[in-house]
Amino acid sequence: MRALIFIVALTLASLAGGTPARAQEGHPLKGSWIGTWTGNKTHGNDVVLVLNWDGKAITGMINPGTDNIPIKAATLNPTGWVVHIEADGKDKGGAVVSYVIDGKIENLPLPNRTITGTWKSQKENGAFKIGRQ
Amino acid sequence: MRLGAPRVFAAALAGLLLAAVPLVAHHEILAKFDDKKPMTLNGVVTLVDWRNPHVHVFMNVKDAKNEVLNWAVELESPIDLAENGWSRDTLQPGDAVVVEGWAARNGSRQAWGNSVAVKATGRKVMTVVAKVPPPLLQTRPTPRWPDKQPRLGAPAPGSAQGYWAFPSATALVENGVTAPMDQWGLLKNIADAPKVAPLQPWAQALYLERQRRFLQDDPMFLNCKPPGGPRQFQQPYGVQFVEDRERKRIFVLIGSGNSNYRIIQTDGRTHAGQVGGDDDNPLYYGRSVAKWEGDSLVADTRGFNEDFWFTNGGLPHTDQLRLVEKFTRSDFDTLKYEVTIEDPGAYTRSWSANATLRWVAAEELPRHLCQENRP
Known about the structure:
The structure holds two protein chains of two kinds.
Chain A: H1 2-18, E1 31-37, E2 46-53, E3 58-62, E4 69-77, E5 82-90, E6 96-106, E7 114-120, E8 125-132
Antiparallel strand pairs in A: 1-2, 1-8, 2-3, 3-4, 4-5, 5-6, 6-7, 7-8
Chain B: H1 5-19, E1 33-49, E2 56-62, E3 68-74, H2 78-83, E4 96-104, E5 110-118, E6 124-125, E7 162-165, H3 193-196, H4 201-212, H5 219-222, E8 239-244, E9 249-254, E10 261-265, H6 275-278, E11 287-293, E12 296-302, E13 322-331, E14 334-342, E15 351-361
Parallel strand pairs in B: 3-5, 10-11
Antiparallel strand pairs in B: 1-2, 1-4, 2-3, 4-5, 5-6, 7-15, 8-9, 9-10, 11-12, 12-13, 13-14, 14-15
């Protein structure tokens, strides 16, 4: 059974890895991002961000779906392409978990650019890395 | 109207200056090759790949260790080479040649060929002289339909061909701003970047990044993405207007890129009526609705996607882009193009730019297919 799960997971991972990102020549943060916030025991290791730019503010959601975490504030400093995101989610007990993500856009000109940095909440912290899909 | 001596002199001078431009390529050559790294390749042709967007000559060259290495020499497009009298048979495998060119920026065995000489004869081949607009000997009246409305695409009586090319500006710059650039919008002085348009901070930083990288990330060059927006009027192979009065629409056929087209609707429809269909499917050329204001066609275009560069030079845009374009065929040979850019996602205010295009008489629109030589 473990072998089967491993094979299925490997297949899904390879399929996801082989999907080319859609071109995005507008605001560099706009789009869907998938990656990991390593060591997050509250919301799991994997993370999805959907970000938008309306001309004045960056808005969006972390893990859209039943477990979604709305982004409270987000900024992009074009000097160094530094990203800062704040979002408040809830743990299984209903307590507020305040996340702060700090990172930097890498491979800016590429459609599959990445954001690499750190995340932290009141109780946990770790490495953060997402890639644009 | 006869030309006076000063006008003849000015036309001749302009022609000489334009003829001196050595490169007419379909994209920024400096994106891939370094003009600060000249090189000479002395070897034997192994293959001529005669395909768009650029012809490649492959050749075997001995290095310093006497090892034979295969190099790819990039030349102009088949369209430009053919116009200058060259063909796929001009060079044959086995021909010994000397190539003077520029090395690839990425260190690969590729070079841009500034000149190719056949060793046996010394003859220079595959040379291309930039095409120049024919001198305007007289001002001819704007062609009109029987109801007196100007005809944007009409050829001269007795001719079935003609199109618009030779844009006076090949990249967007706000009216009144001086920012010298090359044909592909690469600034001569990068310090001019903030002047080019009223960019938001992120958009200005992105524009600078693209400029610093010599426009090498241009999706039209890398992935043959269409030249949507004003960029369709900045390309070397021109555009053709096909006026379909029966269906009240105008096709803009695009000679560069992948030879695709844009539709301008002139049936009185509004954008509101189209939102349901295209709002979730933003387009490279957007949705254009137009009406005639006097002798000018005024097109309002919205619904662009963000997958392309809307001008040479890499000014960014967002899906909030709206263009108001005014087309005026002021005389038979001149098309005025005035555009106002509104994009609150990327710019701090609306801004405008102008250009003119020249009529190319009695010639078919070139058919350039960027995709031909792409995986």
